[in-house]
Fold each of these.
Amino acid sequence: MAVIPKIELSGVTKSFDANHVLKGINLTVAPKESLVIIGTSGCGKSVLMKCLNGLITPNQGSIKIDGQEILGQGRAALEDLRRRFGMTFQFGALFDSLPIWENVTFRLRHQQALDKNQAREIAAQTITQLGLAESVIDQYPAELSGGMQKRVALARAIVDKPEILLFDEPTSGLDPITGGVIDRLIIDARERLGATTVTISHDMASVRRIADKVAMVHHGVIIWAGPAEEMNESGVPEVHQFVHGLAEGPLTNEKPAASPAKMAGS
Amino acid sequence: MHGFVQNIGRTALNFLAAFGRITLFSITAVRWIFTPPYYWQQLLRQIIDIGYFSLPVVGLTTLFSGMVLALQSYTGFARFSAEDTVATVVVLSVTRELGPVLAGLMVAGRIGASMAAEIGTMRVTDQIDALDTLSTRPMQYLVAPRLLAGTICLPFLVLVGDVIGVFGGYLVGVYRLGFNPSIYLARTLEYLEVSDVTLGLVKAAVFGFLIALMGCYHGYHSGRGAQGVGRATTNAVVSASILILIANYIVTTMFFGG
């Protein structure tokens, strides 16, 4: 009997006016699998990730979680769905006005009747699991280094044990050692929670550490997807260029021109 | 000529589109004010920020405006021997007009800018998207408490400003212009009616709503980067100030029956 994919995307398209960002994405992620999406800047990776948890609504296509279609559902169903997700953003997106313990337990405090002491205790437990000192819980995000902020963001994403974790460039802006530590924490968290993870990354060392499967997005479509260990022998020139960081090749950072039909306002 | 007409048409359409967007935004935000869960901590924080921390700026503005008003009206009324009406002019001008408008404009500068900058920064750093991923509606968590706090706090600020402004007029009247203190106070209260104060407070509530609405709207739709947030902040202050002046005329007209 075939295993139902945890996440299944079919023909997902998304345009912003004349800018066609996603042009028909087909992708599956198995339960407990770690998928890493790679691609040049501006290729649509972040839009794709935001489509997964309903932050952006695709124009067309289908997105299924555990075989259930999520597109076209109401706000309440979308909120129920989001409770199954944990997400970290590229720059942390911690709430500046709240101390760390409130950041970490934000969803728990607003969903359950947690008092302050319970929330602080849960926050302390979670951040110490991620290698931060307990005293950090009373600090504010601006008082922490980039690496510490990434850990706090990870704590916020995993604190209520989600089934699916989304990481948007978790190691960007970090030194290699801190990046390696964050990767280790992501792998630990995934194993501990038994979660399915989707990560966007440009950091090939990180991709090799955390990925079971890699998908490369280029000009709004998946041009290659396969096991991480086969990435070097994909036979796709764009993948070869990206994986080896070569300046010469088919990939450029320039965005493709919008289609003439859309530009004419049709 | 064709291009000129086209530009006018485009400007009119843009204006109508913006008006529609702001109207929809405010209807949505007002609906969330009355829908649980209620974020009391957010509301309290905004009340302190708008109400308490705006007191010095509103107090200073109305104090000096009341003082200048006493001096200027004395200068004018002395020309036809109507100096006795200075106290009445000061109290009616401050409660009906200067108190709410000056407090509104000062708070628009302070709070409108701060709301737009804070929410705009949250927008460009993905904090608003993060709220969504944490199953919290940004309109309900960020916008609704600010609108409610603005509407509640401005009348209180104006009430305090009214007292300080009238006191400023009293200081100048008694210590600079030589009025008898008892007579000045008696004149202040003699022609003042409850409706004068009420009109000012109604205006203040409207201004408070508009300031918060503009701050939240422009912050929420802020463009990317520091430039986007800067533009949102400027737009919030300018649009709130213009709307205050327009709303001031409309509310005054309504109370006077046209």
Amino acid sequence: MTGFLLRRVAASALLLLLVLTATFLLLHLAPGDPLGLLAHPRVPPEQREALRQLWGLDQPLAARYLRWLGGVVRGDWGTSFLFRRPAGAVLLAALPNTLLLGGAALLVQLVVAVPLGVAAGRRPGSPLDHGIRVGSLLLYSLPTFWVGLMALLLFAYGLGLFPPSHLHGVGAESLSPGLRVLDLLHHLALPALVLGLTSAGGLLRFVRSSVLEAMGQPHVLAARARGLSERRVVWVHGLGSALGPLLQLLGLSLPALLGGALVTEVVFSWPGLGRLAWSAMLARDYPLILAVTAWSAALVLVGNLLADLLQAAADPRVREATHAV
Amino acid sequence: MPFERGHGLLRWGGAVTLLVLLAAAAAPWISPHDPRQQLDPASARHRPPGTRLAVVRLADGATLLADAVERTPTGLRVQRLGSWRSLPASQVLNLAPRGVDTWRTYPLGTDRYGRDVASRLLWGGRVSLRVALLAVALALTLGVLIGAVAGLGPAVVDAVLMRGVDALMAFPRLFLVLAVAALWRSGELAAVVVLGGTGWMEVARLTRGEVLRLRGLDFVQAARAMGAPPWRIAFVHVLPLAVVPLFAHTALRVGDTILTESALSFLGFGVTPPTPSWGNLIADGQDVLLDAWWVAALPGVAIAVTVLGFALLGDGLRAVLDPRSR
């Protein structure tokens, strides 16, 4: 198990380095430079030059890269041009909010997809199955940001059931801790539902087909023959064998979930990584863009690693038959 | 039974996508109005779907859009911006016995500049579909080439390419697309390049897998034994068969690319105004959600219907072409 863990961590670290390097090159080879956007046209040339030197933009690409990478290794992401604060600090302030939104959305996904997928997979070809299949395709087809806007229109502005944006309402600082949590959940509900529902389609289809497949397998037939209750047969023996691939699928769907989180955060003014990335890109804030993209990739890799570990814990065959990366 | 289901999906998906593609192709002929025309924006702005306005042409060249007109002995009474006013007959060019001779209908309402939403939807769909189709074509080309090189080339090349694919797939695609679009360029062509350049990994993986499977088969061994050169084995024997599983994937890919393009354009990169695309039409409507819900709502419906059509088509193709997938 330790060897497996070490190999996976090493492979992930290597992938992360690749991603970081690619992003760095992508940004620093892009035409134009951030000074054009951030410095006023009337800033005199000598000051402009001073700024370039301060930000290290006057050095050759390789030197810039090494300096940046050296900083990253020490946890220093440079100073955000936009916020004039360390990019790492700006980012760490936004990270928990994205984890909260993503985690809640994942929960919504599971709560929707697992029962419906099981129900559809148990009776293939039934009207219920057809309805759920079309429903899952429809969920996949809806643009997340649009569903967000429509949810705002209906449930926030129209019916007034949920607050339209941000983490907390005005004056939340004066609330008691318990009420503050409730206020946060109230603000979280709508974005989490939107993100969770629009990304549940793939999972739903997966659960359906795994249950369908498992129900015809010998171990399920054997469980049924032993006279176990139907509920136990389906949920323990049928769904059980799908657990490993399910975890893997969740890991693989993380990039899409983060992408969905980005637009959801923008629509709901949710102060997370995605919204930060968006403002950083609008302002050409190199250090912050690099930090945010690197962290989002790292989140995906850590998520995949976790999924792999859980899978290995659940299924000894995975542990034995590993190949690097 | 599964065969039948595949055909049902194929029929529905095919019908929807065909309809959408035809509507987009025919936009210049079937659009009710010019998508960019701002006719009397003060009066026409934020009109709900189905609004019909009277077109009053004035002698000084201006055109007014009126909620109602009434013929009077001396000229025309016009209701515009909430109040009535009288115009002498000499000032109105298109006077008719019952008021004016021209009316203008906005089947899906207007936006904040009084532009026709239906026309913008059709023209925007043209742009969104064009970008998605071209981007998918680019992704397919790149993916098939890279997948073929990985599958047919030496093991080292294969390993390097596949690790690269892993790295790119671990990346949240929207972040990557946004970073490139934001820092390099926006616009239609840039959107095609960005979306195509970040959408080939799955294609490469599928192609490689299929190539590896095929190249172990007897007929390829036989061709090799008969002394066929490597390029001939690649292009004549392996690749034509290796692309078959890509048909279904391509349909799904188009839907996926439409979704990503709309998100990109919604965020202000990708296709930018004044060129309409479904994504930036929704962005337009975001600011006026409470005054004119239809501006943001309708392009979203168009996206959903189109993506659903391509998804059904992809599912149907998979069911029909690959009997193994129940």
Amino acid sequence: MNRLMTWRAPLLSLIILLTVVGVWHALTLPKTAAQTVDSEYAALVGAAAATGQKSTFPTPADFGKKIWQHLNEPFYDRGPNDKGIGIQLGYSIGRVLVGYLLAALVAVPLGFLIGMSPTVYRALDPFIQVLKPISPLAWMPLALFTLKDSAVSAIFVIFICSVWPMLINTAFGVASVRREWLNVARTLEVGSMRTAFRVILPAAAPTIMTGMRISISIAWLVIVAAEMLVGGTGIGYFVWNEWNNLSITNILTAILAIGLVGMLLDLMMAKLTKLVTFPE
Amino acid sequence: MSEPLIRIEGISKKFTGRDGTATTVFEDLYFSIEPGEFVCLIGHSGCGKTTILNVLSGLDQTSSGYVFVAGREVSGPSLDRAVIFQSHALMPWLTVMGNIAFAVKSRWPEWGGEKIRAHCQQYIDLVSLTGSEKKRPAELSGGMKQRVGIARALSIQPKMLLMDEPFSALDALTRGVLQEEVLRICAETRQTVFMITHDVDEAILLADKIVLMTNGPHAKIAEIVVNSMPRSRTRHDLHKHPHYYRIRNHLIDFLVDRSKAFASDSPDYDPRHPPLVTPGLDRADVIAEAPKSLSAGKPLVAVVK
């Protein structure tokens, strides 16, 4: 009974997947029929066009073949507009990580300060509230103008979108450390630096990590759009390039890859969050 | 008379509400604690018991009055006064050993790892937690957590132990066991203790003196009850001692009636010297005594008027 229960959900997932692929397959079946047009026109355009044609949207089989092809050769490089999907994902992940780590370097210490001091919190709050809802892409022209480099600008956009969740969560986590833990530190005459690192940091770590998990998801969302704008390399550029090539199969492959990488990044952060979270 | 370990002189605490009205929680409190004494504070909720404890620990300030520890005024928290918190306040990311080592390292920063570990182990053994050193608080029962809290407080070898209703969150069985442990530990270490409690039996079992507070606001010390029972008491034979019910009835009487109706303006009440009473020696409830000649098996004729 129990084993059946554990298998139920994966089984249902498989059924859903097969149904979606089935419907997709049915909708993209080639529409071959008897000759539908005038025979003179048929002679002019050729037999294929005259008897209906293969769907323009790729079939599941095309998609599978494409994925197989990419999996066999993920890292090829045949000039600026023809690189393997692995290389392109690598560029994107690299940009996300650089921008994200820079944001963490700024946001965690700054959030710590904000959380420790109610005055600083109130002073910076209006700025944070105004800057937080700005779409990171709105910064792009300003970044391109001031930084004068598209690669750096993309990293800046990742930085600016990752910084807010981390900043806010760190400040919140630090500000809401349980008073009794601070009281323990006070009655033990623990210095402020030791209190910060040995009490406040571990106590706020789960909240900080939640902020970092939100940030990495947002950064991965934003990088695709940013790379469509700056161009050159990356999975976002790959999608845009394949749109120009009208290769829907490649676009679909890229979409799947984006989803899988996003899921992996999130899983990694969830694992890290678990490492620093201790139930009471 | 030598200087008491703790001397409290005329402390009061006022809170200002949101609408600007000031409430005086307690005022004009005077009492002292001698070294090696176990003092319990009993009073209803809202009389500022926890505030008094926080003032003693240095975590909170009074609105007026002074607190002296060994003749010196309290200016803030100190390692001399260890606090056992009601909610144990263990850090969930540290193991049992880690939680105690954090305190030991704060007390003696110059100690090496091995020395700290040996010292911690000594106190883990003292509270009978041997074998649970590597467990985190989440893996411990409520009683075990509070044992760690006690070990952490004792490990810094404070002059004074402050306990804020340490057993109130525990079930009755665990509470009884822990009370006996505290009794044993205090007998072994001659630790000076100030403890807040709701539990009359707990106070009679543990305390040498029981400070009774009237209801807040404007709470005062009504009297200080001296526990006249011998110190070698245990939970099992406590109720067999003739003083027990006298003290207990006196305390319950106070909590039920007199804590509300206490008149501090009566002419013989002096807040500087709250009356020291010994209900255990009070024999008002004994009307007649059996004659010396009476023994088992002899007939007795009683005349009831």
Amino acid sequence: MRHAFPVALASVVVLAGCAASAPVGVGDELSGTVTVLAAASLRDVFDDLADRFRSDYPDVEIVLGYGGSSGLAEQIISGAPADVFAAANPATMSTVSDAGLAVEPVVFATNTLQIAVPRGNPGNVAGIADLARPELAIALCDPTVPCGAAAVEVLDRAGVTASVDTLEEDVRAALTKAALGEVDAALVYRTDVIAAGGEVEAVEVPEASEVVNVYAISPLTEARNPEAARAFLDLVLSATGRTVLERAGFGAP
Amino acid sequence: MRPESPTRHRRTGPVVAVLAALGLALLVLPLLGLVLRAPWADLPALLVSIPVLQALGLSLGTASISTLVCLVFGIPLAVLLSHAVHWHVVPRRLLRAAITIPLVLPPVVGGIALLLLLGRRGIVGQWLAEIGITLPFTTGAVVIAQTFVAMPFLVFAVEGALRSADRRSELAAATLGARPAQTFRLVTLPLVAPGIAAGAVLCFTRALGEFGATITFAGSFPGVTRTLPIASYLAMNSDPDTAIALALVLLAVSLVVLLALRDRWLPGVVR
Amino acid sequence: MRLVADLTVPRSAFDVRAAFEVPEGRVLAIVGPNGAGKSSLLGAIAGLVEGSGALRLGDLDLLTLPAERRGVGVVFQDLVLFPHLSVRDNVAFGARVRDGSWTAARKRTAPWLARLDLVDLADRHPAQLSGGQAQRVALARALAAEPAVLLLDEPMAALDVEIRDDVRADLARHLREFGGPTILVSHDRDDASALADDVLVLERGVVMQQGALADLAESPATPWVQRFTR
């Protein structure tokens, strides 16, 4: 094994995750840059946590990149410099671990799908069965991203064939289309519906509770700033982190 | 014509040669990387797979239609621009700036603008929706997005050809009894035809490669709006081999189009 | 038909004012120093440049007509052959415009190729012609359109000095065969003496002297005329 340090780091992370721990001491001499790549649906939560991180560690510059988890995983495998990766499903995280690049993934949140409709629900969407109506414009995530994979399963369980108009490459793109009123319904995460505030309305999908996206986070073996990576991870897994996640609509792991 | 008199060749200085070589490397090496890393063994199967064929057919079809639209509206616009030299400077500059906008605008911004204009809640789009016409997520939207970004290429190429065409030929035609319409058909048009062809080629290849405006305005659905560039981008998420196959197809199509009109390229580019 | 002109042609530095007549079958040479306004005058007669006053061909008032209806043929100083057409089609152009078909036009204008010794060159394009050959094509093109008036702007200017005398002799022959009034512009005395019946001297837009070359030589009205006729 090339790096003994990441192994030690992994153990610490696991222990930190198990304990209701405080983050690494506020004001510790951490410096440099730490790059976090995260699934698009984590945008608001991680932006919030990043602000707190900045006030805790003013000497560290934290850089966040969001996108479809699978795309980010591909970038990491191709050598994109990152310190932390947070994926929206275990399969995507596995592609990174299989490449030997994830130190030790930890599950930290769950998410389920919900239908987002534009304000006023112009398409009169009452449930998942309405997604089959051909006269409606429907947006889903592409099956190659976690949100899309979940959507396929939910639709399958509900026995609905959706009349899809566009398959977006990340969940926020699908959400935006709903917020703009360009589609009558988009199947997105419930956290996205909450994040969009009053711009979209929610329509429940009972079958969605059976399809749970499990989010995992891991520092990366090629991390340039492993200490700061661990610090951010600690923050995500801490009580503060859990509160922020809960408020955004994420479920507990 | 008289045979060219022998000239002393100017030797390319070392500084120029080195910088030029680096510039060339920047342009050529990425393509070389693409070709070298291609999954050649799996390529035949990938190339005839449904996603690739759908994307290819869609891209070729929409780019062709977009080029036609650009010709129909772009040539008159180029004529207008060439006449604008006689205008007052302010409207002349405004006209040129307006035509240049899609060239300098990031394509995604162009897509957003199109959405705000022609989307279901757009300024014009909402009226279109009333009469049952919705543009987003249709193949028509792809054509609109491509035309938006590619038209300036055609307009400026044709305007250049019009400007360099000898206007005195038109005067000579008049002295021989040709009415303005006849002059345009028999003299002006044939003289600018190579420029129009070059412009059409540029327009087609730009339309073929269009991504940002298309994905924002038209969406992404296989066979309807998922053109080659969009399909390639999405495939990078999960299946890099397919992404490379799609990229190679795009590269091959572009090269074929450019080489097929090799002596009608931008004037001076090819001997 | 006789051409009667009394023209004012506005230019940037000065206006050109000239009154003259050219009977049919006669050649008038308009001579003068560079910048005198000779080409502008020609342009006004052809309808390519704004001019006012009077310009009559028989009963016809040419100033009311656009260039394409005046029947005034022009051989330009730089020839301005159509680069995309063959020699045959360049010559046939005037007929094509009238007949509406290239085939009919080519047949009608074929004799002109023979008259100007262009038959062997008929399939070439202007880029493949020598100076003398191109000048013959320009002349054939103008004549084949059967103009009522013929204008030539510095006809020898595009040619190498060695061949000028021969070409000039040929040109003199063709001009004699042309039935209408002819005006040629030149600053070269040999052109005037070999090609023209009468001479008009233009200096800074003003007619200084008109008449036969011999009369000008005998009593030159200005120093320039004196030098010109020496």
